[in-house]
Amino acid sequence: MNYYNYFTEIEDHFVMRRGKHLLVSPMDWHLIASWRNAGVPLNVALRGIDIAMDGYYARRTRGMSKVNSLCYCHDAVMEAYAGHLESRVGEAAPESGDVAIAGDSPDSKEEEFGKDAVLAFLAEKISEIESLSAKQSGCGSQECLSRILARLREITLDAQSGSRLDTEALERDLGILDALLCEELSACISAEEKEAWEQEAKKDKILKVYKKQLPKESYEKMRVNFFRDKTRKKFHVGELSLFRI
What we know:
Order of helices and strands: HHHHHHHHHH
Number of helices: 10
Number of domains: 2
Mean pLDDT: 82
Structural class: mainly alpha
Low-confidence stretches: 93-111
């Protein structure tokens, strides 16, 4: 079980327990990432989802709406993880200092996607940002866009020359560039449009669920992701993430 299967296993399990196909939202993917970064093993995350969904179906009445966000399961997953940690008190910690994810193997950082697919994805993103750079000449973001393009070309050369891809490390690099790109493009958005997005965020159903159920810090991360998604759509660029292949 590697880095990417952790995400897809949780998504598939949540969809199965919900009982009707529903692709999880980009913000739900970020929630899964927060579980993995916290060290929640896959089997514990799945157990937490089961606990939350079992409780939901036990209480469900006619006309009760379906669970539309993985956020509904967050508290149960965290409680299951707390129980998991308590049960392991006294065990030796991994020598590396890293929290092991159930099912991970020594190859968990090895190639998950085919190299051709990754290179095609990088070429597409480079093309999008080159096109964006040509359109945003008056925005004051040219220097930043040039740095992002230069780094993407370096990543492409590294991917071409290497025999295997460390997709987890590549995803981290892309995440840094994506955050930088969105921050720079945000400066090109008018105050009026930002205010309109603020009002839209207040009415967004998924964000309302997150605000009620997540700690403030986690909610703020989801809120940032909402505005990043709006920014990418405005400038017609895709997210710099291998999940978008």
